C-alpha cells in the first residue's frame, strides 16, 4: 500500500515538471541619492528609539532634591542570636546622597536556621525553615554599573525583623537597581 502511494506521488511530480525554463526579464532599478547635509541621519529603528528616550532620562539640570525613589532587588544574609538567616528582598529607597541610597520598610522572603527541641529525644537540634523578614531600614552603597544587565549594583546593610523567631537582626548583601 505504501509503495503504491510513493509511486503515485513520483508519477505526479514527474508529470508536472517543466520541460522548458521559465522566461526571464530585466528588472529596472532606480537609484536613490541621500542629501549630504544631514550628518545625523540614522535608519536603525532601535537606535532612533534609544535616542528619543535618552533626553528624558538624562537631564542637563542637576536634581534639586535628594529624594528619589528606586526599587532594588537583592540578596542578604546575617547571623544574630544564634540564628543564621538569609533573604531575597525587594527594597524601596527614597533618598540618595552621592553613592548612598537610604531605604524604608520593605518585605523579604528568606530562611533561618533555628534551634528547636526534638519532641522524641528532648534534645535541641538545628532546623532550616522559611520565614518572612521585614527590612526595617537599609542603606545601599553604589559599587558600580553592570553593563551586561543594565543595572547599578550596591552593597547593602540593613536592620531586619524575623517574623518566625520574633527577633531583630542585621544583614549585609548585594542589591541591583535601575540607574
List its traits:
179 residues; 51% strand; seven-stranded antiparallel beta sheet; alpha+beta; flat
Topology:
Blueprint: H1 2-15, H2 45-57, E1 67-80, E2 83-97, E3 100-103, E4 106-117, E5 124-146, E6 151-162, E7 167-177
Antiparallel strand pairs: 1-2, 1-7, 2-3, 2-4, 3-5, 4-5, 5-6, 6-7
Report on this model:
The protein has 179 residues and is α+β, with helices and mostly antiparallel strands. The chain has a domain at 63-177. It is 15% helix and 51% strand. It is built from two helices and seven strands. The chain has helices at 2-15, 45-57, and strands spanning 67-80, 83-97, 100-103, 106-117, 124-146, 151-162, 167-177. Strands 1, 2, 3, 4, 5, 6 and 7 form a seven-stranded antiparallel sheet that branches. The radius of gyration is 32 Å and the shape is flat. The chain starts with a helix and ends with a strand.
Class from helix and strand fractions? alpha+beta
Give the DSSP E fraction (strand runs of 2 or more residues). over 45%
Low-confidence stretches: none
Q: Helical proportion? A: 10-25%
Radius of gyration: 32 Å
The count of helical stretches stands at 2
Mean pLDDT: 83
Order of SSEs: HHEEEEEEE
- Count the E strands: 7
Write a concise synopsis of the structure shown.
Helices cover 15% and strands 51% of the residues.
